[in-house]
Structures are given as C-alpha cells and as structure tokens.
Write a structure and sequence with these properties.
Elements lengths: L29 H4 L16 H20 L3 H53 L1
Helix pairs in contact: 2-3
C-alpha cells in the first residue's frame, strides 16, 4: 500500500460559462428585450411531449387524492391546480396535433387526385 505517496494536485480552471450572457447585465440592447426567464425552464422539451404531460397530470391528480385522504385540503387543492395546468397543456397539444392531422389529410387527397389524373392520362395515351 502506498498511503505515504503524495498526490499531485492540479486545481481545476473555473468555468464561468454555465450561463453565457452577451455584454453587461444591464445592457439595453435588443437581445435583453426578448429575454424571458422561463424560456429554458424545460430544457428537454417535456412540455411538448403529450405523453409526458399526461403522466404529469395523472401524477398530480393522484397526489391530490392522497393529500385529501390524509386530511390536508390545502395541499390537495394545490395539487389539483397543478393537475389543471397540465390538463390545459394536454388539451392544447391535442388540439395542435389534430389541426396538423387535418392539414395533412387534404394535402394527401390532393396528391392522390393528381396521381389518379396522371395515371388516367397515361392510360388514354397508351
């Protein structure tokens, strides 16, 4: 065993790039006008995944039921408000998905009509 061996200590260089900012903190340029603190709240995009939103909504509903059964109506109401937020987000994502599906269906119909017309023209020329 080499317990008496001295370790070489190399200090780490301090990295200050965790949050990069352009210019000074109080600059009045156009970038600071668009600076919203909640933009990077969910970095992995979990609020855009409908399945994650649904699971989170169900989690808060279950927490509310548990708090109610433990006799804490204030905590239960708090959890229900969280669940309501995720329910609204879930409905918004569903609506957005349905609109995108409705937009893609007419495009597919137009493409199939064009293909049918081309095949009819080819058949008549042959």
């Amino acid at each position: 065993m080499n317990n008496n061996r001295r370790r070489n200590f190399r200090p780490r260089i301090q990295k200050n790039n965790f949050r990069r900012r352009s210019g000074s903190l109080n600059s009045n340029n156009s970038n600071s006008l668009n600076n919203n603190g909640n933009v990077n709240f969910n970095r992995n995009g979990s609020m855009n995944n409908i399945h994650n939103v649904e699971k989170t909504m169900q989690k808060y509903q279950q927490l509310a039921k548990d708090a109610q059964s433990n006799g804490d109506p204030v905590l239960s109401q708090n959890y229900l408000q969280h669940a309501d937020h995720y329910l609204r987000r879930y409905n918004e994502l569903n609506e957005r998905r349905e609109n995108s599906i409705e937009k893609s269906i007419p495009e597919e119909k137009n493409l199939s009509k064009e293909e049918n017309q081309k095949s009819e023209i080819q058949q008549t020329t042959n």
